[in-house]
């Protein structure tokens, strides 16, 4: 009997405790909602959109770009924090008065809101410190202002063929997930001025050159959906790359030319300069590619320039190899008199020319004797003239070839360095002019 009485008292105590916990919650809700809003919310159905039977609801949007934190060429994306504001009219929320009502952001769960999402978002989250960053404001005519703060990582397709002198155009696309154009219509509230904050942004490697908005539709298998697109153009700041990559590579090329002023007998010094500059240039090229995607489809402008510099440095090393080889070959050939060598060269040239002349003249003599004996027709004479022209052209070609060979014949290997001192800097300057003009203006 005593145990039954104790159990009944315990049940009564728990019931009273549960009732005391429920009363403050109800009172809290009544305190949050004004009487006018309580009256509206009482018959409100958040699962039905405004103007459910009277056409689509128009949703106006505007944004403030708080920051663009990172722009990654490797992942082809950017991370931005935005303040997204949406406005629409809900006739069920009209009330008497001339002032708007600012409500707690947690009451958004009691109202209908558009199902807007960011199309190319890889990862997004809503800020919730110290509470969820939401704003709900209702006007007497039923207009609802809904604002949220979002940080999102959005993909951006980049063309890196002119890196680091490139310009990238990225987009931020807002679209309705479930409502098609028959249910919801999107529009920018102030056109191109609907997006603000870009003018005050300070980016590490980029400068925002231009931005504009557009209204379009997304076509899927399930229907046509409203879409708003924000375009912004980013221009990369090249000063960092000039100081970090271009200037060191130019200095390495100039350093490789120092070997042209060193004596050819100083083999260790010239080899040391050539190998050191080649290895340093290789390290610089590898470091320039670490922050870029390893894609074969992109032949970037910086890769082209580093390849040019590497070619000049490697060419300076090969120049000394050729010079040293010609010097050794000249020293080994000094045992024979120079006059004999010249006579031999002349005899070889004369022998080749005589062979060509004989091959051309032999058919002519036979043809002449044949013409005297058999009195050939005028057609045979024309053929003789053509053969004579062919032989004479062959003789001129052979003479030109001999002249070309004489030009490539190095009589004094020490002159190779003199030619290199002039040709290497001149060609490097010409290639630089062509490179910068092409990538900056085309």
Task: Describe the fold and architecture.
Helix 3 (239-256) packs antiparallel against helix 4 and helix 4 (267-288) runs antiparallel to helix 5. The model is unreliable at 1-9, 11-30 and 362-368 (pLDDT under 50). Helices cover 47% and strands 24% of the residues. It is of the alpha+beta class. The radius of gyration is 43 Å and the shape is elongated. Residues 37-237 form the Neurotransmitter-gated ion-channel ligand-binding domain. It comes from Geospiza fortis (Medium ground-finch). Belongs to the ligand-gated ion channel (TC 1.A.9) family. Gamma-aminobutyric acid receptor (TC 1.A.9.5) subfamily. GABRP sub-subfamily. Keywords: Cell membrane, Chloride, Chloride channel, Disulfide bond, Glycoprotein, Ion channel, Ion transport, Membrane, Signal, Synapse, Transmembrane, Transmembrane helix, Transport.
Brief overview, please?
With 442 residues, this protein is of the alpha+beta class. 47% of the residues lie in helices and 24% in strands.
Summarize model confidence as the mean pLDDT: 81
| Oligomerization category of the chains in this entry | single chain
Order of helices and strands: HHEEEEEEEEEEEEHHHHHH
Please report the number of helical segments: 8
Radius of gyration (CA) equals 43 Å
């Amino acid at each position: 009997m005593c145990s039954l009485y104790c159990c009944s008292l315990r049940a009564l105590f728990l019931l009273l405790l549960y009732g005391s916990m429920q009363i403050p919650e109800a009172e809290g809700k009544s305190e949050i909602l004004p009487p006018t809003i309580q009256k509206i919310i009482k018959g409100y159905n958040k699962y039905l959109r405004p103007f459910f039977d009277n056409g689509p609801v128009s949703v106006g949007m505007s944004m403030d770009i708080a920051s663009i934190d990172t722009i990654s060429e490797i992942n082809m994306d950017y991370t931005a924090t935005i303040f997204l504001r949406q406005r629409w009219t809900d006739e069920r929320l009209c009330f008497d008065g001339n002032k708007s009502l600012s409500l707690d952001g947690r009451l958004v769960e009691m109202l209908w809101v558009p199902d807007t999402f960011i199309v190319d978002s890889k990862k997004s989250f809503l800020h919730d410190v110290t509470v969820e960053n939401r704003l709900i404001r209702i006007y007497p005519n039923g207009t609802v202002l809904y604002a949220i703060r979002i940080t999102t990582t959005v993909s951006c397709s980049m063309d890196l063929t002119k890196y680091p002198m490139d310009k990238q155009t990225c987009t931020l696309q807002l679209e309705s997930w479930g409502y098609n154009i028959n249910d919801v219509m999107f529009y920018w509230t102030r056109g191109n001025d609907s997006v603000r904050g870009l003018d005050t942004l300070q980016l590490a490697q980029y400068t925002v050159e231009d931005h504009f908005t557009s209204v379009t539709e997304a076509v899927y298998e399930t229907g046509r959906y409203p879409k708003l697109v924000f375009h912004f153009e980013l221009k990369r700041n090249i000063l960092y790359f000039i100081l970090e990559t271009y200037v060191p590579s130019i200095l390495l090329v100039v350093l490789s030319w120092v070997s042209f002023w060193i004596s050819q007998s100083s083999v260790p010094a010239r080899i040391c300069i050539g190998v050191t500059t080649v290895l340093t240039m290789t390290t610089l090229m590898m470091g320039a590619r670490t922050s870029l995607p390893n894609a074969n489809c992109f032949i970037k402008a910086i890769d082209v320039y580093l390849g040019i510099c590497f070619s000049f440095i490697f060419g300076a090393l090969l120049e000394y190899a050729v010079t040293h080889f010609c010097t050794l070959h000249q020293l080994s050939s000094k045992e024979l008199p120079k006059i004999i060598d010249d006579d031999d060269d002349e005899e070889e040239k004369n022998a080749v020319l005589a062979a060509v002349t004989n091959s051309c003249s032999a058919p002519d003599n036979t043809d002449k004797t044949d013409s005297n004996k058999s009195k050939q027709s005028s057609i045979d004479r024309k053929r003789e003239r053509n053969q004579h022209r062919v032989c004479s052209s062959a003789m001129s070609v052979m003479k030109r070839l001999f002249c070309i060979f004489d030009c490539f014949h190095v009589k004094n290997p020490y002159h190779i360095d003199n030619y290199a001192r002039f040709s290497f800097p001149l060609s490097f300057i010409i290639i630089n002019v062509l490179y910068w003009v092409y990538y900056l203006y085309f």
